[in-house]
Amino acid sequence: MPASTMPKPVRELNGCRADAIPDFVLQSQEPLILKGLVSEWPATKSCSASLNSAATYLSKFWTPQPVTAYVTDSGSENRLFYNDDFTDFNFRRGTAPLHQIMQKLSEHSAEKTPPVIYVGSTMVDKFLPGFRAINDLAMGELRPLMSMWIGNRSRISAHYDFPDNIACVVAGKRRFTLFPPDQLPNLYIGPVDRTPAGQAISLVDFDKPDLGRFPRFAEAIMHAQVADLDPGDAVFIPSMWWHHVESLSAFNILVNYWWTTSADYLGAPSAALMHAMLSLKDLPESKKAVWKNLFNYYVFDADPKSFEHIPESGRGVLSEVSKEMAAWMRSEIISKLQ
Question: What fold, for 3-261?
Answer without folding.
Answer: Jelly Rolls (2.60.120)
